[in-house]
Amino acid sequence: MDPTLAADLARLPALLDAVRDASAEALAGLDARPVVPLRDGPPEPRRLPAHGAGAEAALADFRDRWEPRLSASAGPRYLGFVTGGATPAALAGDWLTAVHDQNSNSGMDGAGQHLERETVAWLRELFGLTPAHTGTFVSGATMSNTVGLALAREWLGERLGVSPAQDGVAALGPVRVLSGAPHSSIAKALSVLGLGRAALVPVPTLPGREAVDPAALDRALADTPGPAVVVANAGTVNTVDFDDLRAVAALKDRHDFWLHTDAAFGAFAALSPDHAHLTEGLDASDSVCVDLHKWLNVPYDSAVQFTRRRDLQARVFANSAAYLGPLGADPDLVHLTPENSHRLRALAAWFTLRAYGREGHREIVERDTACALELGGLLEADPALRLLAPVRLNVVCFTLADDPTPERLAALREAVSAEVFVTPTVLGGTPGLRAAFSNWRTTPADVRRAAEALRAATKEIA
């Protein structure tokens, strides 16, 4: 064994203590750190060392050169990208994921698979889905949407008497994917799956809304030759608008389509009695996307994909190799996602659900929603700013009251980046900014700090 590696092995408990202390210090300082540090680019690159100096030296180098440049994305005022943090239990679960280092894809070493299935069952209950849905962990919402649309592609083939998984996507002919205000990952998934970005057909939304107009969707489906795919939204990116999922699903009585619902963070509305009605009808979906490193507050990268047609899932992703064993009636996870290597990412989710239960996570959802409403009210009262949409759940979409150019908004965003991080957007042709609340640490005090920073910055760029 390399002598430096052997020395680290001999000192492993002390090294883990050092990492623990560094982690605790970093997390304790989240509130005081700049949310996005303003630095002049990365440090000067270094060459790969021929001889290593050991883990302790690597830790010191990381803390000196890289840690000060990292954002406080785990903290309470990182309001970009609908990013959660990591609850204490989720962090513990993620550390243990690395400790046990499972490739939880095979029934030949099956404990990891069984833990994932238990976690999926808990999540299914959390979101109000019935046992008709099976689920699998994937790396994020983009992959969850991709898997769901891969199943839709195979379903289209089933309706047409072909198998794209076997015969290729050309066997389908032209495909239409209908949606009101789809997330950008939908077009990306269609590109990856060979269906093409041009397959995505926009359907009119309700006036002043991002929710699809069910009557317009009905007409679009009537004009679609053959079976189609519908992508419904349970929480849009800009305004957290929800399609009427029951109305969309009811169209199946008259039209032949696969219903995929992108509920990346909107599914968590099911936890709040005041907002659970928004997710009514979710269970009627043929496939569902939910992102867990958003509102479940587990570390990146983690999402879950649900479907009613696991048979199609196994047909698409079956991995035929003697060393993997047979497909079987209850497919191993290796046969259900694009990944042959499948980290036990379910463990962090299992830990946080086991530690805090439904009620603990309901409190996070309701507190974040209250914080979004409070920030919306404070910005609405500021004459220099205006809301671009009502605050429906956990996202505040706003802009400058006067001359909201992308350049001025970029200057505003940069001016506040040490105190609060928000991201740019465009809504209805108007450039704006988004503040997305999904971190378990965020409190009303953070809202007031964010609002004050924005108020002061508008005066700076005036």
TrEMBL record:
Q: Which domain of life is it from?
A: Bacteria
Q: Which Pfam families match?
A: Pyridoxal_deC (PF00282)
Q: Which cofactor does it need?
A: pyridoxal 5'-phosphate
- Keyword entries, A-Z: Decarboxylase, Lyase, Pyridoxal phosphate
Identify its protein family: Belongs to the group II decarboxylase family.
* Name of the molecule in the record: Pyridoxal-dependent decarboxylase
This chain's source organism reads Streptomyces polychromogenes
